[in-house]
Amino acid sequence: MSAKASKAAAAVPEQALPTIGGFRGRHLALTGRQIETEHGLARVIVDEAESPLTWLARRRGRDGRALIEAHQLQAGERLRADFTKAHLMPRTTSNWASPLPSERRGTGSERAAAVPEVMIAARQRVHRALDHVGPEFAGLLVDVCCFLKGLEDIERERAWPQRTAKVVLQLALDRLARHYGFAAQAFGRSHGAIRTWLADDAAFSVDAL
What we know:
The protein is mostly helical. It has a domain at 24-91 and 105-180. The protein contains eight helices and two strands. The protein has a two-stranded antiparallel sheet with strand order 1-2. The radius of gyration is 23 Å and the shape is elongated.
């Protein structure tokens, strides 16, 4: 580990892990993850069952394949991450003016100036992604990936037939994945091109062995 990485890791404040009872723990899919914070990488406990995409990625269809593929899950989670960074989730408190919790305000002009830039950049990425998938899929992706609505709720709210939401979601995630450059398989050249730097009057040749 480099000195810079060690310093960043040391800057992350230690936080106590949440206390979860045995009964509640049986109904959660808890796992540890590392997330990027303003202080560096921090390890947190998350409930993987919270996201409908994670639930779908773990389930298998009749053909034995996952209900959504890894690149589709990656695309949906990236949209969700940008949506969260953009502070587009509706607030449940009366403080609608400040993008930061009250305990973080007034900690320095540099942090105050950096936060709006991060939010603006995240909002631009969200808008670009939703513009790319089009209005036919944008609302569905926001509901499932960002607001974490289940497919049954989607079908009931939109009066869709059963199992329709899964098919439409797969199409939407495919288009979103193409926007981010994700694919089920990686394709490329079998070998890289040979590049040389020669003088104007020089010639390059390969002698057969």
